[in-house]
Amino acid sequence: MSSDIQASINTHVAARIRSLRDEVGLTQQEVARRLGISFQQLHKYEHGKNRISAGRLYQLAAVLETNIEAFFADYKQDDARDTQMPADAGRSTPRLMRQFEAISSTEIKKSIYGLVLALDKTRTA
Question: pLDDT tens-digit profile of 18-50?
Fold first, then answer.
């Protein structure tokens, strides 16, 4: 599993922790007390500063009266890939093509094309 996908999952789980806590109406202090950790540690979990262990996630599910799967709900693996592209990548393609076509040097165009091919190969590797 790539580090981008791991980071995406960790970010998603962190956001779900906070969302689920808010849904049940508990404060960070209350959840932290029930888990036996500081509220600062829970804050770090919720903001993705620290990763949460499987055991702690299991305890948190019990405190929030949910199941483990709830922390992964709505996660899509494509989310990790999307983070590598600018938000306007699809809209910028025509402009990029116009700029590429405006390059008068054939050698520069060949170099850019070679670079794009090389980047594509490293991305799928």
Answer: 999 999 999 999 999 999 999 999 999 999 999
120 and 95 co-located in one domain = yes
Residue 112 is classified by DSSP as H
CATH number at residue 22: 1.10.260.40
Distance, in Å, from the CA atom of 28 to the CA atom of 39, rounded to the nearest integer, reads 6
Q: What domain count does the chain have?
A: 2
Give start and end residues of each alpha helix (H) in the chain: 3-24, 28-35, 39-46, 54-63, 78-82, 89-102, 106-124
What pTM was computed for the model?
0.60
